[in-house]
Amino acid sequence: MTELLTRAEASNYTETSRHADVVAFADELCRRTKLARRVDFGKSGEGQPMVALVLSDRGCFTPELARKQKKTVVMVEANIHAGEVEGKEAVLALARDLTLSPLGKKLLDKLCLVLIPDFNPDGNDRISTSNRKLNLKDLEGQLNPAGGVGTRYTGEGWNLNRDSTKQEAPETRCMAALYQAWWPHLFIDCHTTDGSIHAFDLTFDTSHSNEPLFAELRHFNRELLERVAKAVKRRHGFDSFWYGNYRSEGEPRSGWHTYPALPRFGSHYRGLLGRLDVLLETYSYIGFPRRCEVMRAWLLELFRDAAKNAAAYRAHTEAEEKR
């Protein structure tokens, strides 16, 4: 049987997947394994299918079955900003590896993974070498694949990571319905960041909007991130740290700070719902293949942590539901 490759892998990381590639990859994966199912959850602003891949064993492909089988639900959103394509490629490759190799056997017994590889299909397909072009003078852009990447905005001009409160974009409303249906214990949002020059392959964060409301949950969320960062370093060799930038650009001694805790940002919105949330930002000034590798490593170790500590994930989120 022909090896199933992403467009990035097949092109030796000179290109990124178009939405048609994502859909074709998902369909072929579902044809090859009973551990994956494609679930469409709406249409983009320009009418493209919004596609999720659900991975689990025992035919656990619905929210109802996940609850009945007491699975820990982990939802991953990639490509919300379609110039930041590493999550898209990592999600597809990891979905394949978890279902077509022994890698996911123990994980899929405990977890139900709901993976959205391309949340911004219309922005994704506006691929150009001009998008997110590297500009070190202004600390913008990234080291792109030679074939270019998509746009930050949707085809209709929405920035989906500023739309969580108003939910004006059709993509945001589709995601909100999917989230409410599955009510994941853990949500992971995949990005790539420019900005300050530092020494880390990936920076991570969680919601800051929930500090006064969900102190115990937030403490657990931060602990799991520290734990996973150590696992990523130990097993994969990547360096990671909390997300942010220098307070005064170019002056490390000025301090390190993160972004505003406003609920228009996805992570801060979800933090108000009493669920676990993770923001992943690969570092734009390392090469495209390495960014895909570190994103894959982080996703895998987050899945491993969720499976190993499934009871704790469920207990903390369920406690907030009852409080």
Automatic annotation (TrEMBL):
GO molecular function terms noted in the UniProt entry: metallocarboxypeptidase activity; zinc ion binding
Transmembrane spans: none
Limits of the Peptidase M14 domain: 12-306
Source organism of the structure: Stigmatella aurantiaca (strain DW4/3-1)
InterPro entries listed in its UniProt record: Peptidase_M14 (IPR000834)
Protein name: Zinc carboxypeptidase superfamily
Keywords from the named record: Carboxypeptidase, Hydrolase, Protease
Cofactor(s), names only, from the UniProt record: Zn(2+)
Catalytic residues in the record: E281
Family named by the database record: Belongs to the peptidase M14 family.
PROSITE patterns listed in its UniProt record: PEPTIDASE_M14
GO biological process per UniProt: proteolysis
GO cellular component entries: extracellular space
Domain of life the protein comes from: Bacteria
